[in-house]
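Example 3.2
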Amino acid sequence: MRKPISTKVHGVLDYVTGAALMALPSMLGWRRKPSMLLEGSGAMAAAYSLITDYELSVAKLLPMKAHLTMDALSGGMLLGAAMLMDEDDDVRMTIAGIGVWEIMAALMTETEPEYERQGRNGQNGRSAGRAGKSRGRGRRTAESSRETAKAAT
C-alpha cells in the first residue's frame, strides 16, 4: 500500500521541522530544559537527514527505514519527556504535539525514494525482467566461451 508522504516531501518536512524545533523555544521564551530538548532534537533530525538515503540529502548513508525509525523514536522520546517535565501545560502540550507529529510523519512516509523504486523496476519504463535477461546473456556467453575452449583442447 502506498503511503501519502513521499520521501522527497518527507525531506522537506525534515528540514523545516528541524529548523522550527531549533527556533521555537527562543521565540516562545521557554526555560532552559525544554529549550535544550527541542534544540537538540531539531539538530539531530537535521543531521541525520543530511545523511539519509533520499532525494534531499548530501550523503546517502542512512537507509530510509532507519531514518523513519529514528523519527518515531524521537517522537516517542518527546512524548515521554512531555509527560515527565515539570513545565507549564502549554510547553508540555507543545512538546507532546511535536512528538505525535514525528510519529505520524514516520508512519505515513514511503520507505523507499522514487529513484530506488525506478531502479528496481528498470529505468525509463524498462522492466526488471528485461534487465535480468541481459545479465543472463552475459553468463551464457561466458559459459559458451569455456565450452568452446574446452572443445578446442
